[in-house]
Amino acid sequence: MDTRFLYPLESCKIIHLLRHGQAEHNVEAEKDRNALLSPHLFDAPLTDHGHQQVENLRERVVSSGLLKRVELVVTSPLLRTMQTAVGVFGNEDNQPNMINKPSILALEVARDRNGVRPPDMRRNVSEYQTIFPTIDFSQAYIFFHIESEEDNLWRPDVRESEEEILARGLEFMKWLWKRPEKEVAVVSHGIVLQHMLYVFANDCDVSVRHELCKRFANCEIRTVVIVDKSLSSSTEN
Questions:
Q1: Tell me: the pLDDT tens digits for 187-234?
Q2: What does pTM read for this prediction?
Q3: Most buried among 96, 97, 172, 191, by the most CB within 10 A?
Q4: CA trace torsion 172, 128, 51, 57 (10° rounding)
Q5: What is the distance between the alpha carbons of residues 198 and 109, in angstroms, rounded to a whole number?
């Protein structure tokens, strides 16, 4: 029999990691990777197929009861991720019979790999606030000593390293663990979600780690349970 472990519920947090639906730059990059350098793909929006992916996932989230359980949604402040977050978990139409209305919080730390590529540059915050009135931008900069209407984090000539992505993934997970919510959805980008998972990869069996940290498909949702082992150990004493 395989080994299993029991942990008290108070030492666990459920995280649903969701990559955005298909966006215009995803389609163009399949034809030519150099297209990712095109200014015409600035802050690339979802394609029609991407919107359909979001609609399909919304139906699954509702029918499975997940929408009832999620207490907080954290999203990258790029157009494609916020379109996905609102489409899957939001209530932009103010439907009176909406089962649940989890808060949606936009954080810079959850954005795509920074620099060089225009699809990964964001618009001004005020423009997003007009498009997404139900998203909370008030804490967008909590991980950075920069607060700006414009995108001062994106650099035209320097691409963010994977070590830097891993470092912010670690900081984000530390912040998330301290939040009071027990079930949270994170809407972000493939490489960023992978590095968030790498934070805990060493605690997994090799086969599980490979499956857990593989590349995300567009609009794929992957669920993990984070356990504070120090807390669980203290409850045993």
A1: 999 999 999 888 777 666 676 676 777 889 999 999 998 887 665 444
A2: 0.88
A3: 172
A4: 40
A5: 16
